[in-house]
Specification:
This protein has two helices and no strands. It has 40 residues and is an all-alpha fold. Helix 1 runs antiparallel to helix 2 (21-39). The protein is flat, with a radius of gyration of 11 Å. The two termini are 13 Å apart. InterPro entries: MFS_dom, MFS_trans_sf.
Amino acid sequence: MVSAGILGQWPIGRMADRYGRLLVLRVQVFVVILGCLAML
């Protein structure tokens, strides 16, 4: 999961430049929560 997070940082950074940091942060938190639920 950590390696996937590191790999995910690059496209997320590019998205952040287009759509704004707050929106991307919300999406990132949502994805992390989904990932945690999937592991349970």
